[in-house]
Design a protein that fits this description.
Layout lengths: L1 H31 L5 H8 L3 H7 L3 H10 L2 H14 L3 H16 L6 H6 L9 H20 L9 H15 L8 H13 L10 H11 L1
């Protein structure tokens, strides 16, 4: 029994250290963006840089772990869209809105996500590819109902969602930007006879901010 205890205790400590680093990193990136100093994160977490890098060998590895922690949240939103939205076009719009918000968790996050889909794989690559698969599923449903163009791919929509997420956080964005960009994004994938108005919650948010 004592031998089992000796082998399990370090693992438990390591898991606690890992979670503590994640908690500190989440707060640090929320305040400073994804370009924030990893050494500063280690210092705030009360560990040495070596300990941080043993758990997370790169910035992308740390970001991937933080996004994995949000998988359940966006999964619940995906399931709610599927179960509550009968119109496949609206369902796709709502899913893209969920992706836009997901990619806006930290300032600057869209760029490493975009880079992860390049020629050099990163710890974020599988995360992005998984959400592209989900986007393809929503797109296929909209296309089957004649609401989406045949030449649009889930990968393209994912990248556009990253671009919109980045643009919403840009200095030139204002209160009208989210609803306007939602409409532009939808008009880009919608079939010729499909409605191109922004999704209801984005439009409502714009009206509320304008009053």
């Amino acid at each position: 029994m004592s031998e089992i205890t000796r082998t399990r205790a370090p693992r438990s400590d390591a898991l606690r250290n890992r979670q503590h680093i994640l908690d500190i990193a989440r707060q640090h990136f929320a305040e400073h963006g994804v370009s924030g100093s990893l050494d500063a994160i280690a210092k705030d977490a009360g560990v040495g840089p070596g300990t941080l890098y043993r758990h997370f060998p790169s910035r992308d590895a740390l970001l991937a772990a933080l996004l994995t922690a949000r998988d359940e949240e966006i999964g619940i939103r995906r399931d709610a869209i599927i179960s509550s939205t009968s119109d496949a076009g609206d369902a796709l719009s709502q899913w893209l809105e969920a992706l836009i918000e997901w990619a806006g968790a930290f300032d600057g996050l869209p760029e490493p996500l975009r880079a992860a889909l390049g020629e050099i794989p990163s710890p974020l690559t599988s995360t992005c590819e998984g959400y592209i698969v989900v986007t393809d599923a929503f797109l296929d449903r909209a296309r089957a109902e004649g609401l989406a163009r045949d030449d649009v791919r889930g990968r393209d929509l994912f990248l556009l969602a990253l671009a919109v997420s980045w643009a919403r956080g840009a200095a030139m964005a204002d209160a009208a930007s989210p609803a306007s960009m939602a409409g532009v994004l939808r008009s880009g994938w919608a079939a010729g006879d499909a409605p191109t108005t922004p999704i209801a919650n984005a439009d409502a948010a714009h009206r509320a901010q304008s009053t």
